[in-house]
Each structure stands twice: as C-alpha cells, then as structure tokens.
Specification:
Pfam families: LptM_cons. By secondary structure, the chain is mainly α. The protein has one helix at residues 5-26.
Length: 50
Amino acid sequence: MKTCWAQYLLWGVIAALGLLSILATAGCGQKGDLYLPDREPPAQSQPADR
C-alpha cells in the first residue's frame, strides 16, 4: 500500500507538537517550588521637609 504525502505531514505535525509540549513543560519547577509571592505593601511616601 502506498502512503500519501498528507499522511507523512500528519505524522510530522503530531511528532513536532509532541516534542514541543515535552520541551515546554521540561522547565517547569526547575528553580524550586512554584508559588505566587506575597504582595508587598505599597511604599509610604515621606513628606518633604521644607
């Protein structure tokens, strides 16, 4: 049975997307735990002395 060029294209796209998803998630959590840092309170402005 002869395969069509579209079938090769489909398998290529599937392989590329699979590899991309593996590479995209490979770096998750590499610098420690993932968390949202606490918000720092806004800086209070000091009144200028005249």
